[in-house]
Automatic annotation (TrEMBL), chain B:
UniProt xrefs under InterPro entries: Fe-transptr_FeoA-like (IPR007167), FeoA_core_dom (IPR038157), Transcriptional_repressor_C (IPR008988)
UniProt keyword annotation of Ion transport present: no
GO MF annotation, one: transition metal ion binding
Annotated Pfam families: FeoA
Ranges of residues in domain Ferrous iron transporter FeoA-like: 1-78
Keywords annotated in UniProt: Iron
Matching SMART domains: FeoA
Name by which UniProt lists this protein: Ferrous iron transport protein A
């Protein structure tokens, strides 16, 4: 029988630097999965002791106590107590403490130590505590807690070796099983505070960076201006910084397409490669730079500690529609992708507010809409400037984001009033100290995002593209019959059925065709259009030119605007629907979500189309 | 004096918390964040524009954001 490596759980308060420590101990080889039976993300990784023995590490969700008030905290409790079915109990705990916040973190530490598992305490972020003028006596803390204490600075990889050595020693020391000791909450609190006070060697007022920054970033007026400026910068950057890398990717695919055209004889297989695979997948991968820039901003906001400040600034605005600043963080993440956004709602304590947030998350303009928006804006909106550094195209994109936000606000107000019938919302959150984001952690996270996107492009989008190409290519229209290949194909005939429904909102046959595979994911609409137009092109030169000019020649401006309005609302993403079903435990809410969003999309596209028409566009 | 009326940047001690007026969940989270009678706190910032809500409050060495309706349940006394 092979012996399983010991399982060690990292556990501690939110903002104790637990994930940074986990990254530092396990490196880039991490496995991300879910805990059995729940959708809480389980991050695990391997570390090795000095003697080469492997040890499995897991990074438990941050918690304040073993008495949970969120789904995340419940998982932490169940794993620590060994109550999570299908998951083994850890062989040891590493309790991660923020050295600068012992008053608040020690109570949970005492509660954990009382569980009787072998334990090592990581006194983390000692450098930040020192920066703030705090000197601690680690040995005294160890005596008071009855567990070894190692000083660490995870972001600088300080104290990692001593921590692993102590962990090894603790695991290999035979010990009598200890019965958990029950102590009352108040008594533990008092004990925690007494210990925290006793281990302080010296305390000066320090530099208090956080406080000074807060007086600017939380300023009643300045804070709002800064937040809006940051968001605007973020969206301008998505457009501006991505231009060059997008150009490289496009020329790369063009070269590849040319090479294949030159190397293979004209025929079905060549059409499959150039019109199907390269046109389809290429038109989606081109948006990777924009998606990464968006995620980069969100990761930086989170890692620096600003995200909760943004929630603070936005709380009253969110309260106007029955939500709170808590909802702001998942909703901002939804600008990158609704799936992590919806999963981030698990930190919202109020269940009605959580549900409302899930239901409106798909209205935040996610990165999958960018391909659609970019193509249409590029084709129909002139690339002029309307002010210093502000392009018209960027402004229209900003307008689409605003449309999504206003739609979400309206939806939230209606949902909280009539669906969840929630009367109050609450906002109560810890605001961590500001920190410089660590490049390695950001890069690791960004790489994980890019990989997920490329995997999607390589699987779902690839498959949808191939199927669509086949549906568009067969049966073959006769040359010289006067009927176009698209109209004659299987897909053309399916779209015939859909067309009468979408005709009133200004959509043409090609759009009807693109909407079907876009149900899998919105960005597929672009690759579908690319495939449609590549196949319909009379000759190779026309096929080689990009999609935008073809759309501009073929669609009216009113149709283009209606198409944009449709995608502000349409819930065309299988993954979002699936994750909503998982997070709400049933089909009721995803069905509700899809229905109201399609109704909104249809209405918005119709209104846009007919308004534009009445202006003669 | 209730926390929502506390002047900014003045240390105060929590005298009592009216747990009964707080929803269970909020009371529980408030406790987890270290709000208890006898603890020193300090109001640092008030919310945006005309609302002046929520509040940012220092508890121990931590900053916590909370709404004024919760703050109203916390009775404090300014330190001399």
């Amino acid at each position: 029988m092979t012996q399983m490596p010991p399982l060690v759980a990292l556990v501690g308060n939110p903002n104790a630097g637990k994930s940074a420590l986990f990254n530092a101990l396990t490196g880039a080889r991490q496995k991300i999965a879910n805990y059995p039976g729940v959708t809480v993300e389980r991050k695990s990784g391997r570390a090795t002791f000095d003697d080469g023995q492997p040890v499995e590490m897991i990074d438990l969700p941050g918690a304040y106590s073993l008495d949970p008030d969120s789904l995340d905290e419940a998982v932490t409790r169940d794993v620590v107590l060994g109550n999570l079915e299908g998951h083994r109990r850890p062989d040891a705990l590493v309790i991660v403490l923020d050295a600068g916040n012992l008053d608040n973190h020690l109570r949970f530490a005492l509660e954990l130590i009382a569980q009787g598992l072998p334990t090592v305490v990581a006194l983390n972020m000692v450098d930040l505590a020192e920066r703030d003028g705090l000197q601690l006596d680690a040995e005294k803390l160890a005596r008071a807690l009855g567990a070894p204490v190692i000083e660490t600075v995870a972001v600088r990889r300080r104290g990692l070796a001593p921590l692993m050595a102590e962990l090894e020693r603790t695991l290999k020391t035979p010990r009598a099983s200890v019965e958990p000791v029950a102590v009352s909450f108040g008594a533990k609190n008092q004990q925690a505070r007494d210990i925290a006070r006793s281990v302080i060697v010296s305390e000066t007022s320090g530099r208090q960076w956080t406080r000074r920054l807060d007086s600017v970033l939380l300023h009643p007026v300045g804070g709002v201006v800064i937040l809006l400026a940051l968001l605007f910068l973020m969206f301008q950057a998505v457009y501006g910084w991505s231009e060059a890398p997008i150009g490289w990717i496009e020329s790369g695919f063009a070269l590849l397409s040319d090479a294949i055209t030159g190397a293979l004889p004209d025929g079905l297989f060549r059409s499959f490669l150039t019109d199907g695979v390269i046109a389809g997948v290429g038109s989606v991968i081109v948006f990777l730079p924009q998606i990464l820039i968006l995620f980069l901003f969100i990761l930086l906001l989170e890692a620096s500690g600003y995200m909760t400040r943004a929630a603070f600034v936005m709380d009253r605005v969110m309260a106007a529609v029955g939500l709170s600043g808590h909802s702001f963080i998942p909703l901002l993440s939804s600008f990158a992708c609704a799936i992590p956004g919806i999963m981030a709602t698990r930190t919202i304590m109020d269940q009605k507010e959580r549900l409302a947030t899930i239901l409106i998350a798909p209205l935040m303009t996610c990165s999958a809409r960018l391909p659609v928006y970019t193509v249409i804006i590029g084709a129909f909106i002139p690339s002029t400037t309307v002010g210093p550094g502000i392009g018209l195209q960027g402004l229209v994109l900003f307008g689409l984001y605003i449309a999504g936000i206003l739609g979400a606000m309206l939806a939230a107000a209606v949902i909280q009033r009539f669906v969840t019938q929630s009367r109050t919302s609450s906002f109560l959150i810890e605001m961590p100290r500001y920190q410089w984001p660590r490049l390695r952690d950001i890069a690791l996270n960004l790489w994980q995002r890019a990989w997920v996107f490329l995997r999607r492009a390589g699987t779902i989008i690839f498959a949808a593209t191939i199927i669509l190409w086949a549906l568009l290519s067969f049966p073959k229209a006769h040359v010289g019959s006067g009927i176009s290949q698209v109209e004659y194909s299987f897909a053309g005939r399916v779209a015939d059925g859909l067309e009468p429904i979408v005709r009133p909102i200004g959509f043409n046959h090609d759009i009807a065709l693109a909407l079907i595979p876009a149900m899998a994911a919105r960005e597929v609409a672009v690759s579908a259009l690319a495939t449609v137009y590549a196949i319909d092109a009379a000759d190779e030169d026309a096929a080689a030119s990009s999609l935008g000019p073809k759309l501009a020649a073929d669609w009216s401006l009113a149709t283009a605007l209606a198409f944009l309005a449709w995608f502000v609302f349409a819930p065309q993403c299988i993954s979002t629907i699936a994750v909503t079903r998982r997070e709400t435990n049933g089909w009721k809410w995803p069905i509700f979500m899809v229905t109201y969003l399609f109704a909104l999309a249809y209405a918005a596209a119709g209104i846009t189309y007919w308004t534009a028409r009445s202006f003669g566009l | 004096m209730q926390l929502d009326h506390l002047p900014l940047n003045r240390a105060a001690v929590i005298r009592a918390i009216d747990w009964d007026v707080l929803p269970d969940q909020e009371g529980h989270r408030l406790r987890s964040l270290g709000f208890e009678p006898g603890v020193t706190i300090e109001a640092l910032h008030k919310g945006i524009l005309m609302w002046r809500d929520p509040l940012a409050v220092r508890v121990g060495r931590m900053t916590v954001a909370l709404r004024t309706n919760v703050a109203a349940a916390i009775d404090c006394e300014l330190k001399p």
